[in-house]
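sorry for the late reply, my laptop died twice this morning and i had to redo everyting from scratch. anyway the thing you sent over, i finally got around to it. pasting the sequence first so we're on the same page, its 176 residues, then the predicted structure underneath. double check i copied it right bc i was rushing
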Amino acid sequence: KQKKEYGLSTNEIVELGNLCELTSLKSTAIQNWVKRDIKDLIGHPELGKKYSVEQAVILLIVRDLKSIYDFEHIRAILKVAFNTISDRSDDVISPIDYYESCAYVLDAIYHQDTPSMKESNLQEIVELETNRLRHRFEELNDSQWLKIRQIIAITVLSILTFHIQATAHKMTADIL
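ok and here's the structure:
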C-alpha cells in the first residue's frame, strides 16, 4: 500500500491544541505566528494548504514555549533540536519524538507519589524523568543528548508554568 501523508489545517491544529486542559489556542494566533513570528521555523504548508504532522507538532511546541519565552528564545531552543527548521533530514531528533518525550515526562510527574512540589524539587523531578529518556535516543552522542535533555526539560517546565499561571487566573476569576 502507498503511504498516505496526513495534513492538518490551522483550525484542526487549534482543535488538537485545545484538547489539553487549560489551553486556549486561537487560529488567528497560529496564522500570525506562521506569517510573522516563526515563518522561518515552520515554512509554508507542506501538503497543499495543510501543514504536515511535524509542522503541527512544532506549532504545539511553540505554543508550550510561548507562555514564558519570546520568539527569539523559542527559535534558539528549537534550532538545537531541529537545526535547519525547513529541512527535517538534519534534525537531531524529530518534532514528534521531542513532543512525545515532553508528554512522557509530564505524565511521569503527574503520577508522582510525592505531593510536595517546591521549585527545586520540581526541577529535580523534571531532570530525573528527562534523564530516563536516554534509552530512547541511543543514536545521539553525549553532547547532543545533553542539549536535547535540556530543551525537553525547559519545555516541560514551561508547560508547568503555564498551567500554574492559568490555574491562578481561573481561581482569581472565580472570586472576582
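The CA atoms of residues 83 and 91 lie 6 Å apart.
thats about all i looked at so far, will dig more tmrw
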